[in-house]
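Put briefly, the fold is written as integer tokens. The lines below illustrate.
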Amino acid sequence: MASARAPSRRKQALAALKASDRKLARLIDATEPIDPGAWRSSRPVGDAFSVLVFSIIGQQISGFAARAIAGRLQEHFGGRMPTPAELLTLDTDAMKTVGLSRMKIEYLRSLAEHIISGELDIEHLHELSDDQVREQITASKGLGRWTADMFLLINLERPDILPIGDLGIRSAVQRLHRLDHLPSPSEVEAIGEKWRPNRSLASFYLWAWNRQMTAVRPKGARD
């Protein structure tokens, strides 16, 4: 029954988004229909700690490199991600061996320590409000608003999340509004206010449309 209701809710959310913003309505009509469930399944998922560990590992490197480092870390624990306590048993040299920088080692240890201390209540994040989840995640060193927003959107499947700091979202908003500059996160937030309470679905369409527009640009074209 729940799965039958999902398409209906998505249809209602799409109708509300299109009614709220003519420009977004044209974008939606120009984009292949989005299935958030299928989109989420293509992203790194797992237990909350593993997702946040992967998020730290992946900072400022390619997805390929991040997966390689994560794989080497898992090899230390029989092919799985360590628990927070297990992660803290690895010394600095062992962590550097898998390809982690000094800064990322510090971030991973901060994450593990926040979970062990209870400051980050990893098992009950789903019970908290969006802002409470952001507050807990960003209290850990190296985890910012973008990570918290992506966790809310992908792992907790919250319906009204707009990752205002995401480059793909910002680029799509720039294209959508024909801006002569890449909008700041605060500008994206202001523009997206009219999309409440369906900003997650709007985000999926913005990403898809931005990829679509990038793919059809002539080689060497510049914005």
